[in-house]
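A quick aside before the break. I want you to see a complete sequence-to-structure record at least once, exactly as it would be stored in a machine-readable document. Don't worry about memorizing anything.
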Amino acid sequence: MRVLHFYKTSFPDTMGGVEQVINQIARGANKFGVRTDVLSLTPERVPRTVEIDGYLAHRARLDVQIASTAFSMSVFLRFAQLAKKADVIHYHFPWPFMDVVHFATMVRKPTVVTYHSDIIRQKHLLKLYRPLKWRFLGDMSRIVATSPNYLATSDVLAKYEHKVNVIPIGLDKTTYPVPSPEKLTYWRDRFGPKFFLFVGVIRYYKGLHILIEAARGTGYPIVIVGAGPIEEELKAQSAQLGLRNIHFLGHLPDEGKVALLMQCYGVLFPSHLRSEAFGISLLEGAMYGKPMISSEIGTGTTFINIADETGLVVPPSDPIALRNAMKYLWENPSAAAEMGLKAEARYWRYFTADQMVRSYVDLYRELMTSWC
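That is the input. The structure line, written in C-alpha cells, reads:
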C-alpha cells in the first residue's frame, strides 16, 4: 500500500503541530508495510526529495502566500505524479489551495482528510471559500476528527458526521531525546526545583496575554518556551507590569525542551480560542507526567486534560481563574503529583503514536477494500 500526504508545510522544513502529526503517521506506517510520500511547499532551495525515517518527503516551490494560504504553480504537476502512484490520498485541513489542487488534478483515489481545525480568524475570506470547502469535504471518502470534543462542537463536522472517524493525535516518546545530566542540572540551577512551563508557538490564540495578567502578584516562576509573531508584544506587556517571574526563552532545541518538561512543576496551556484544536505541547506535558492547567474551549485540549483528574480546567480569558488554578497546584503538591500520574496514565491509554498509526492504517485498508 502507498499513501500520499499533502499539506502546505512538513518536516524537516517546519515542525508545528500538523507537521508533527504527519511525521508520526508516516514514520509509524512504515512499520506496517505502508510506503508513504509527503508533499509540501517550501520557499527554500532544498533537494526536491529526501528520505526521512523510511518515508519520502517531496517539496514543490512556494510561489506566494496570501492570508496564511500558500500557493504554488509547480505543485499541480508534482501532486498529479505522486497521486497516480498512491493507493490512498491523505489531506490535512485547513489549506484552501489544497482543495483547488484536488479538483484541478481530478483525483480518482480513496481520500481521507484529517480535520485539524475550523477556520476561525479569516472570517471574510471564509465567505468566499465556503462553497469550495463544502464541495471538498463532501468529496472526501472519510474525514478524521482528532478528538470527540471537536467533533461534538464543530458545526462543519456536524454536517458530515456520517463519515467522520475520531482518531486522537498520538506521540512516540521514544523519538524524544533523553537530556544529558549536564543539561538537567543547567536548567535546575537556572529556575530552581519548582516552576510552571508553557511550550508552543507564540500566536494570538495561545492566551499568553491572559497568563501574564494571571502571573501578577504571584511570584511563581513561569518559563515560556517558543517563538512567534506576538513574542515582542508579550515581552513588552510583561515588562510594563514589572514581572520578574516570567522567563521568555525563545525557541529551544528538543533536548532543552525535554529537560524543562521533565523538571517543571506543571504545564500551563491558556489557549482561549478554538484555533487551538488539540494541543500537542499539552499532550507532551501529559506524556512526561505533569499536572496541567488549560481552558475549556470545546476542543481537544479538554480531551487531553480532564478537569480535576489530570489537571485543572478554567474558563477561557479569565486571568483570575487561571491565577487561582496555579495557586491550587502550587500549594497542594500531593494533589498536583497525583494529577501528573493520572495524566501520564491517560497518555499511555489513549495518545501513543502506535495507537494513532494503527487506526490510520486500518482506515486506509478499509477505504481500499471498499473502493475496489
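Two observations worth writing down. The radius of gyration is 21 Å. Residues 3 and 36 are 5 Å apart (CA to CA). We'll return to this after the break.
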